[in-house]
Amino acid sequence: MAGGNNRQTLTDADAEGRALFRKWCEAAGLSMGVDEMGTMFARREGTDPDALPVYVGSHLDTQPTGGKYDGVLGVLAGLEIVRTLNDLNVKTKHSIVVTNWTNEEGTRFAPAMLASGVFAGVIDQDYAYSRQDAAGKTFGDELERIGWKGDERVGARRMHAFLELHIEQGPILEAEKKQIGVVTHGQGLRWVQCTVTGKESHTGSTPMAMRRNAGRGLAQITELVHEIAMKNQPNAVGAIGHIDVYPNSRNIIPGRVVFTVDFRSHELDRMEGMVAELLERAPKLCDALGCGFEHEVVGFFDPPAFDPVLVGRVRAAAERLGYSHRDIISGAGHDACWINRVCPTTMVMCPCVDGLSHNEAEEISKEWAEAGANVLMHAVVETAEVAG
Q1: Among 336, 364, 333, which residue's Cα sits nearest to residue 67?
Q2: 135, 145, 149, 379: least CB-packed within 10 angstroms?
Q3: 12 vs 328: CA distance, rounded Å
């Protein structure tokens, strides 16, 4: 394994990626603004100063061993739209702003989509600044350290629309041989961080009947999460990803386990019902083991329905350009899901090989990238309106 792309948010690698993106934007004649969450806004002026800008973009931060396209495709496609308009000397009525949202992944600092959540007014900025990584470093301090804390008030910008291109991160488009996913809805998400507390003791000398094994709590809740998700098919998913075991020694029974349950659905009632069942049953499982159970919701957003006019423009562009397409629900969370609360929003998706993402083997073809960028450009330019 080569390790993939490790450009976690607010690291030195993130700072280097931001600087390169700024250089490319300035070369394309764009003016750069940065807000107090570090989100980057690169603007191509329109002909009507009173017309609200059309925003397009995604994110540049990655998972610890991420792929090359998750997020990056959407940001660079936005920049390529601007370059193409420059080459063709096409002016638009509305300004076009290429955007890099800070901390979409939520890997280093939970929750995900942190900056877009603050922008949309659903996450408090002080709360965002206080988020800590595994080493105890805060989001606010790290933003200052890498030099990307802007002076622009978060959420001060008014938007005409926001469009985001992203790889599907799932297998549906490739399996059905569709070039374009027309995203009509996004899944809602709940991340429930759970802590099971038992008692550390020697593996070899503690009788089985006298153990308070937090690891068994994790095991039983893992099966519970799967059971709950399966009961809610086909419109829901659930799993446990992040796990920390303490003290994580070969010959010590775990005294504490911290893990995050990830439930998702595009149906709000269904998603909330899954969380409610987890929180009703998990404490009882742990109590039977002599263990304690605590929880905190560390990630959340309700399922969005994207703007039907913009969705229609994406669908019409795919048809006009001759690309095979289907309507699709985004299985992952994206910045568009929060920005949908403040302006008309939609997404375009392209396939990825084997549906693989958050992995160094993440791959797309040039043809898929081209199709996605072409559809995005047509929808963005139609929304920004070519100046007469």
Answers
A1: 364
A2: 135
A3: 36
DSSP string, 242-290: EEEEES--TTEE-SEEEEEEEEEESSHHHHHHHHHHHHHHHHHHHHHTT
Q: How far apart are CA 278 and CA 79, in angstroms?
A: 43
Q: Which of 174, 189, 190 is nearest to 328 (CA)?
A: 174
Residue 68's CB: how many other CB atoms inside 10 A?
15
Q: How far is CA 98 from the centre of its chain?
A: 17
Q: Give the global pTM.
A: 0.82
CA–CA distance, 42 with 95 (Å, rounded to integer)? 10
- On average, the pLDDT of the chain sits at 96
Q: How confident is the model at residue 299 (pLDDT cuts 50, 70, 90)?
A: confident
* Residues 6 or more apart whose Cβ sits within 8 Å of residue 357: 67, 69, 70, 167, 169, 170, 332
Q: Which residues contact 209 (CB under 8 A, 6 or more apart)?
A: none
- How far apart, in Å, are the Cα atoms of 85 and each of 44, 91, 256, 375, 380? 10, 7, 56, 15, 11
Tokens representing 293 are 């159970």
Helix 72-88, helix 366-384: angle, nearest 10: 60
Q: How far is CA 121 from the centre of its chain?
A: 17
- Output Rg (C-alpha) for the chain, integer angstroms: 22
For residue 353, the one-letter residue type is V
Tokens representing 352?
């990825």
What distance in Å separates the CA atoms of residue 147 and residue 135, rounded to the nearest whole number?
Answer: 20
What value does the mean pLDDT take over residues 145-160?
A: 98
Helix %, strand %, coil % of the chain (to 5): 35, 25, 40
Q: If you average pLDDT over residues 363-384, what whole number do you get?
A: 98
